[in-house]
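Re: weekly structure request thread

Next one in the queue (460 aa):
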Amino acid sequence: MTKRILIILLIAALSATALVSAQEEPGTILEEAAKVEGLSTMAGAIGLADPAALEALSGEGPFTLFAPNDDAFAAFGTENAEMMSAALSDVALLTNILMYHIVPDEVTAESLLAAIEEGDGEAELPTLLEGATLLATLDDDGNVLINGAMIVQADIMASNGVVHVIGSVLIPPMEEPLPPSYVMEIPAGEKGSEDNPLVLMFIPSEDAQEVLAGAEDLAAALTEKTGLYFEPTVSTDFSAAVEAVCSDEADIVALNTFNYVRASAAECAEVGVVSIRFGSAFYQGQIITLADSGIESYADLKGTTFCRPDATSTSGWVIPSIAMAANGIDIENDLEIIDVGGHDAVVQAVYNGDCDAGATFVDARTNVAEELTDVMDKVLVIELSAPIPNDTLSFNVNLSDDIKQNLVSALVELSLDEESKALLSAVYSWDALEPAEDAFFDDFREQLDAAGIDIETFGQ
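Done, posted below.
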């Protein structure tokens, strides 16, 4: 098969995405990229970059964004841990890296392939990073490569240009060496100093002492990495944590999705990092019951005793209550609701027959499987929720930007180190942490709005 035929076939394949969405009016490059599954890390990185430098992506354009997917960032963080750490603590460096992924022109798959053919196998593309260019080539199978990174999804059309998803992070040429990770020097008495530590607040999933021990180990690692001092503490529940951050009694808080959205709406907190479990920044909730209960669907929950972790648990009540109401369950009159204080406790209550059904995250049953060896057979999942954003570490809005930025860098760097990962796992079974921005939760907000939920009063 000739290269010309390969190019024609590749144009058709790469343009398939554009044909599917051609009937919809596209948004800007940033809006369209946010819709693509697997670009959450890219969105988080954009949120940490210099806003002024990225205004163009929401302007008229045209522009082309070569967007590394989440797997690309994960591999980059493993292979280039020093650069990742430096970028997360240096806005200028991070912005330069992102600018290197943007071409000031609309370069579709067809025009890109044509340029490669016209250039005898390669095409040079100028970028928004002054003086830096990208090199587009084809591999032996006809795949398009940008500086050796394969385009894995092409022609995501936007109102001001086009997005291509690539499988590697592009590293710009650098004349200056990478800046070192820095340790902050906080004057005595100021927030973050030894005599005025940052209050780091967690919520007990089950055992408060176990969570506190994990929080203390994490705080010690953060102190060594950043020079900041912390006072780890454990709140009674999420509502108390929201109250603490809104009253300036807490500086960094572990909040689930619903309570982060609540604290954000009250202008008390802004997200720093979102947790990653099983390679994803999302999880699901589940409805569970005994195998012989006769309960097989939402409809069968009428007249039952229903266990939940607490009234503001995202997967243990907020999302399940929306789903139950949508399926004809009158929450106030059809259910006897029991708060048991945690997801593990819900599983145990269902297992023991203390309630007919309950809601937890997927799959909370494994947390008690060592003690209840037949739990996977005895307790069954009858319904799964839509994807839910994972829990966060969020900052008090009054915390300085320098401290926030340094903590994001340190937390992400810790999650890239194999030894440090154990600290995250010990607290909340986190596999990793990724930078996040508030817009990450917009889809969840839309679910709440559609269900008519008032986040200020829900669960009160």
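The CA atoms of residues 240 and 414 lie 28 Å apart. The domain at 3-166 is CATH 2.30.180.10 (FAS1 domain).
Next request, please.
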